[in-house]
Amino acid sequence: MAAARAHWGSKFGFVMAAAGSAVGLGNLWKFPYITWENNGGAFVLVYLAAVVVLGMPIMMAEILVGRRAQLSSVPAFEKLGNKGWSTVGWLGVVAGAVILSYYMVIAGWSIKSFIQCMGWSISGYEAPTKDAFGQFLANGPLQIGLTAIFTVATAVIVFRGIGGGIEAATKIMMPILVLIMLYLVATSLTMDGRDQALAMIFNPDFSKLPASGVLMAVGQAFFSLSLGLGAMVAYGSYISKKESIFGSALWVVILDTSFALLACIAMFTIIYSVPGLDERISGSTVGMLFITLPDLFYTQMPGGIILAPLFFILVAFAALSSTISLGEVVTSLMIDKRGWSRHKATIVCASIIFVGSILAGLSLGAVGPLSNFEIFEGKAGVLSTLDHLAANWLLPLGGLGTTIFVGWYLGKKDTLEELGLTRGTIPFHVWLWCLRIVAPVAIIALLVAVIAGWDFS
Ligand code: PFF
Fold it and tell me: How many CB atoms lie under 10 A from the CB of residue 242?
C-alpha cells in the first residue's frame, strides 16, 4: 500500500485540500457564535494563543506521523508505535463519527439558506421575522430532509475515493470563497457598527471569560484546524517528501484563522449596525451565520442578489470538503482494519451517522425530550451535547495523545528527518518544547480545571 500511495499534485494542492478540511462550518458558523456568547476579546485572544501554541505544533506532528508512516491514522500509530498507541487513532474515529452526526445537520442549513436566497434574489428581500429561525429549527422533517441531502452527497464522494476530484474542486472553490469573504468584510466595514464590532473582537476583558470558555477556545482551535482525530495524519500521508511540513502547516493555519476572524468582523458589524438584528439572533445565536449575512447582501451590497446565493453554495461546499475529510477518517479505517469494501464501509458508516443526525436534527425544538436535557452546563439537547463532547473533550484528548506520541515516544531521528530540520537548531527546539511540555501541560491543566469546576473570572 505504501509504495503505491498517490501524492498531492503540488504543495498548493495539499494546502487547498487541508484548508478545505479545516475551513468549514467551524469558521463560518461556530467561531462567530461562540465568540459572541463568550463576549469576544479575551476569548479571541485565548483562541489565537491556542492556535499558535497548540494548533501549529500539533498540526505539524499529525502531518509528520502520516507522511512518515505513509498510512492513515490508526495503522500509522500502530506502525510507528504499537497496538496500544493505535488507541489514539480509534479515539479520533469516534470523535469523527460524533462530529459528523451533528455537522451534517448544520450543513443542511446552508442548503436552506441557498434556496431562500434564490427566492429573495428573484422576488425581492423581505427581512424574516424574529421567530423565523427558531421555527425553522423546530421543523423536524425539514431538518431531517436537509441532513439527508448532505449525508448522501458526502457518502457519494467518499465512496468514489478521495482522489476523485477533491483536490481539483477545492483548488477552485477555496479562492472564490476567499474573495467573497473579503468583499463581505470590506462592505461591512463601511457600516456604523464597525468600531463597536472591532472593539468587541479585539479588546480583551478577562473578567468576562470563565474556565469553561477557555476550554471552549482551546477545543475550537482543535475543531477548526481539524486536529485531534487523525484527519491531518491521513492528509499528511499524501504530501510529497519534498514539501516542507512547517510551510504547509503554516499556510493552513493562517488561512483557517483568517477565515474565522473575517467571519466575526463581518457578522458582528452587521449585528451592531442593523437595528433589531441583535434581538433576532438572541433567541438562536447558533443561527448567526444564516441570520446576519442575508441582511448585508440584500441591503448594503452592490451585486448582493447574485453573491448571496453564491455565498451559501460556497458555505455548503466548505462544509462538504470538511464532511468528506471526516467521512474519510471513519470509513478508511473500516476498510483498512476490518477489511470491508469501500462500498460496504461507506454505507454502514453513513447509516450509523445518519441515525445520530436524526437525533441531533430533532433536538432543536422538534422533540422536547431530545431538546431539553442537559449533561454539560448550558448545553441543552443532543446537538449541543455532541458538539461539546467532541470539540471540548475528545479532540483535546486526541491531540494530547498525539503530542505525547510524537514528542516523547517517536525518536528524534524520525522527527528531524521528516521536518527537514537540524538537531540543535532553535526552530526544532521551540517545536519540540511546545509538543513535549507546553501542549500536554496546557491540555491536562485545562481539562482538570474544568472537571474541578474552577472559574478564572
Ligand atoms: N475543521 C472543520 C471546520 O472548522 O468546520 C471541522 C472538522 C473537519 C473537524 C474535519 C475535524 C475534522 F477532522
Answer: 8
Count structural domains, the chain. 1
Q: What nine digits make up the cell of 275?
A: 437595528
Query: Is residue 84 pLDDT above 90, yes or no?
Result: yes
Per-residue pLDDT reduced to its tens digit, 281-332:
877 788 889 998 898 889 888 888 998 998 899 899 889 989 988 998 898 8
The parent domain of residue 125 ranges over 11-451
On the CB side of 361, CA atoms within 13 Å amount to 28
Mean pLDDT over 108-112 rounds to 96
pLDDT at 141: 97
Q: CA 175: distance to chain centroid?
A: 18
Count of other CB atoms within 10 angstroms of residue 92: 31
The verdict on residue 2 lying in a domain is: no
Would you state the cell numbers that stand for residue 160, as one nine-digit string? 468514489
**343 inside domain:** yes
Q: What is the CATH number of the domain that holds 386?
A: 1.20.1740
For the chain, the straight-line distance linking the first and the last C-alpha, in angstroms and rounded, comes to 52
Whether 231 is in the pocket of ligand 1, judged by its Cβ within 6 Å, is yes
- pLDDT, mean of residues 110-131: 94
* Residue 4 domain-assigned (yes or no): no
Q: Is residue 6 part of a domain?
A: no
Task: Indicate the helix (H) or strand (E) that contains 375.
Answer: strand 374-376
Take residue 421 and report the three cell numbers written for it.
Answer: 530540520
Number of the ligand 1 atom closest to the C-alpha atom of 96: 13
Flag whether pLDDT at 214 surpasses 60.
yes
With CA atoms as reference, report the closest residue to 313 among 185, 169, 182, 189. Answer: 169
**Ligand 1 mutation pick, 322, 332, 387, 395, max ligand atoms within 8 A of CB:** 322
pLDDT, position 1: 39
Q: Is the CB of residue 21 below 6 angstroms from any atom belonging to ligand 1?
A: yes
For residue 263, the surrounding DSSP H or E stretch is helix 245-273
CA 225 / ligand 1 centre spacing (Å) = 6
CA distance 209 to 207: 6
